[in-house]
Amino acid sequence: MHYQNGATSGGDDRNTTGCPFHSHASQPTYFSDVIASGKLTLAEVFTNFSEIMFAAADTTSNALCFILYLLATNPEVQARLREEVDEVVQNNGLNVNPVGKMNYLDSVIKETLRLYPLATMQCRILEEDIALAGYLVPKGTMFVMNHFAASRNPEVFEDPEEFRPERWIRDERNRMHHHPFAVMPFGYGKRTCLGKRFARMELHMAVAKIIHKFQVKPIESMPFDPVVRTILTPGDQVPVRFVDR
Ligand code: HEM
To answer: What is the membrane topology here (predicted)?
Structure first.
C-alpha cells in the first residue's frame, strides 16, 4: 500500500517509525509482559506466540487489507461509510463504544468477509452418525466445508460477486434473507473463533480511523491477486493508496 503526501509524518516525537498509523513502537505489550513474568515455559511461549501471530494478527491484518481494497474500488460505498464515520466522530469522538454502533461499517466488514472469507475451508469429523439429505453419513467421516464457494453461491446471494454492504442492513430494500449459516467467517460451534468480538472491534476501530483521516484509492497499474497461504490473503501487494483528506 502507498501513502501519498507526507504531511502527517513530521512533528510527532512519539512516532519513531515514520508510519502515519504507528506511534507506540517501543511500549511494552501484553505479550512481552507475560514472557518477562517467567511463568511460561519456552514451549508455551512458542505455541502462544504462533497462535497469536497466526490466529489473531495474520487474520485481522489481511481482513483489513481486503476491506481497504474494496473501499478503494467502490467509492460510493466509501463515501457512505465516511458520512457515518464523520457523524459519529463529530458527536462522540473515536472510541470503542460509538464505533461499535456503526451499522454501515459493520455491514462493510460482514460483506468483505463474505467475499473474502479468510478461512476458505474448514473441517469437522463427525462424532456420531447423521442423516443428511436422505443419506446416512457414518461417524468418523471428515466434512470439508468450502466457505469460499458457499459465500458466493448465486442461489443464496443475488449478484454474489458484487460488493454490496446494504445486503446486511436491516430494513434496507436490498437486505438479504439468507440462511444464517450461509456465511460463517468465524466458524461455529465449540471451536468457533475465540477472538471474533475482539477482531470485529479492532476492524471497526482501524477502518473508522483510516476513513476519517484518508481517502483510499485504487492503484490501477498494480494487480490484485489474492492467494491462499493457509488463510486467504490479498497477495504480495495491495493496490491501494492513501490520500490525505
Ligand atoms: C478477521 C479476523 C478473524 C477471522 C476471520 C477469524 C476466523 C477464525 C476461524 C474461521 C476459526 C476456526 C473456527 C472453527 O473451527 O469453527 C478461528 C479460530 C480461532 N481464532 Fe480466529 N479469526 C479472526 C481473528 C482472531 C483474533 C483477533 C483472535 C485472538 C485475539 C483469534 C483467535 C482464534 C483462536 C484462539 C481460534 C481457535 C479456537 C479453537 O480452536 O478452539 N481469531 N478463527
So the answer is: Peripheral membrane protein
* Ligand 1 mutation pick, 50, 54, 58, 59, max ligand atoms within 8 A of CB: 59
How far, in Å, CA of 45 to CA of 65, rounded?
28
Nearest CA to ligand 1 atom 18: 193
**pLDDT tens profile 102-120:** 899 999 999 999 999 999 9
Testing ligand 1's pocket by substitution, the residue of 196, 202, 203, 207 carrying the most ligand atoms inside 8 A of its CB is: 196
134 burial (CB, 10 Å; 0-12 / 13-18 / 19+) is exposed
E strand segments, the chain: 2-4, 121-125, 130-132, 135-137, 142-146, 214-218, 227-229, 231-233, 240-244
Q: 191 C-alpha to center of ligand 1: Å?
A: 9
What domains are there in the chain, each with its CATH number? 2-13+29-117+148-244 (1.10.630.10)
Task: Give this prediction's pTM.
Answer: 0.86
Residue linked to cell 466509501: 78
Report the C-alpha gap between 158 and 29 in whole angstroms. 44
Q: For residue 37, what are the CA distances in angstroms to 29, 34, 53, 126?
A: 12, 5, 20, 41
